Amino acid sequence: MILRLLGAERLKMKRTWIIALLILGPIGIMGCMMINFGLRGDYFVRKYPDDLTSLVMESRMLLYLAIPLAGTLFASLLAGMEHQGSTWKYLFTLPVSRFQIYLGKAIPLFLLMTICAGLTVPALGFLWVWADLSGTIPWEMIIKSVLYPTLASLPVLALQLYFSIQWDNQAWPLTIGIAGILIAGGISKWLPWAYIRNVMPLDIGGDNDPHFWLPFAICQGVILLLIGATIIMRREVR
Amino acid sequence: MTKTVVQTTQLTRRYGKTTVVQNVNLNIKQGEIYGFLGPNGAGKTTTIRMLLGLIRPSEGEIQLFGKDLHKERKSILKRVGSLVESPSYYGHLTGKENLEVARRILGVPSKRVDEVLEMVRLTQAAHKKVKQYSLGMKQRLGIATALLGKPELLILDEPTNGLDPSGIQEMREFIKELPREHGMSVLVSSHLLSEIEQMATQVGIIRNGKMIFQGSITSLQEQSRPRMRFGVGDANVAAQLLASEGLSVSVEEDGIWTESLSQQETAHIVEHLVTHRFSVYRVEEVKQSLEEIFLGLTEEGETP
């Protein structure tokens, strides 16, 4: 059943911004990093102990913004198209459980984020060569510094998905998403937006700890997803 | 005995303190076109949403195909197609793609998409984006989507809302054919009696959340007592005469009206008038139109 829902979801993405965003995201990250290293490369040599640290630390800044932003936009696009054509009421009269319909949105959201991450890895690999950083491309470290924050964004994804489904005006979930990115991480390391930074595999004098934060974030993500699904399942459809 | 497709018992729905639907006992038999009538805001859509499990009843039970909706939601909804209020669609997809989305979820064979497109005559526009469709076309696409899973029961909430007269007629003809050609039962709601009258076999009339009539169209017509009209010269004086005889009459522009009369009573009045030298040029029995009955039923007891 869930495969059938995913098949339907795939077709709905046709002619939407979702596919464009999927490609533009990683390209954008690469572009920013190229400018960053092109302009400030010499400074990084003095600032960081080695090239690997400079790559991870500089991409951390960007991923910290880009991952939750992508999640916010994807969630809003996935839920928004149902609000737009008032198709929620139709979906809920189909012989499918509401929980499955919710998962039918959550799984594509997670897959989109994973694909984005998957494309960002070679983009950073390319940057390593382009910026003429020393040694062979540190694939393991690059994968970790992209994959960990993506997994750690699960709680943010769960929240954004819930808000986007709950409200038909997508201005609200977008506001929350952006406010979260800009403010929440600075307030407390315990807020979901901060987890993305907490799980980085490298840090200088920071309190990153992927061994603790990664499982913590994943568990919290799953719990938030279930809570969101439960609320939507009980909700009456107008 | 024909099977009951929809049966609600004492169905009630409250929003806060207001009761929107109150003790409604809906009964729809297989193969019927059931017209669900009522003025706007009478509780039609709320009832239909409860039938589809979109909202929960405050009290009462819903049985579809003899099964409890609450307990066997999925297996029941597999046999139901619906169109609730405004049509649901993905504007950025073509008509055919919209149906394909629904087809993938329902798991019906691909050729069914072309079949339903043909049924609602959208084959020509199948590859146009739905946001370019007219309202009538969107409505037809909604019906096509509802028909996709070959439902045994089709629930249509105000399907002709916003359609032009030819669209309304087309929709009506289309709905009328469904039980005959596909063995479906249809529940169709409307606030216009004239519309229901021309397609429904059974009607349920709801007002202020209460079911005030349920039965066949013919039994609805029997609800009205015919009146007698006497075309008489000098009607005012004639009416005074009849009133002095103890008859309850009223004078209207086109003559004297009385409640229905037996043959003897009629003869008596005519004789009376003639002997008093009034010219009687017309005596007729007038039946109320369904529209009048409907208005009478829905306005009765309504607080101004």
UniProtKB/TrEMBL annotation, chain A:
Keywords: Membrane, Transmembrane, Transmembrane helix. The chain crosses the membrane at residues 21-41, 61-81, 102-131, 146-165, 172-192, 212-233. PROSITE patterns: PROKAR_LIPOPROTEIN. It comes from the Bacteria. This is ABC-2 type transport system permease protein.
UniProtKB/TrEMBL annotation, chain B:
PROSITE patterns: ABC_TRANSPORTER_1, ABC_TRANSPORTER_2. CDD domains: ABC_BcrA_bacitracin_resist (cd03268). Residues 6-233 form the ABC transporter domain. Gene3D superfamilies: P-loop containing nucleotide triphosphate hydrolases (3.40.50.300). Pfam families: ABC_tran. GO terms for molecular function: ATP binding; ATP hydrolysis activity. It comes from the Bacteria. Keywords: ATP-binding, Nucleotide-binding, Transport. The keyword Transport applies. InterPro entries: AAA+_ATPase, ABC_transporter-like_ATP-bd, ABC_transporter-like_CS, P-loop_NTPase. Belongs to the ABC transporter superfamily. This is ABC-2 type transport system ATP-binding protein. It comes from Melghirimyces algeriensis.
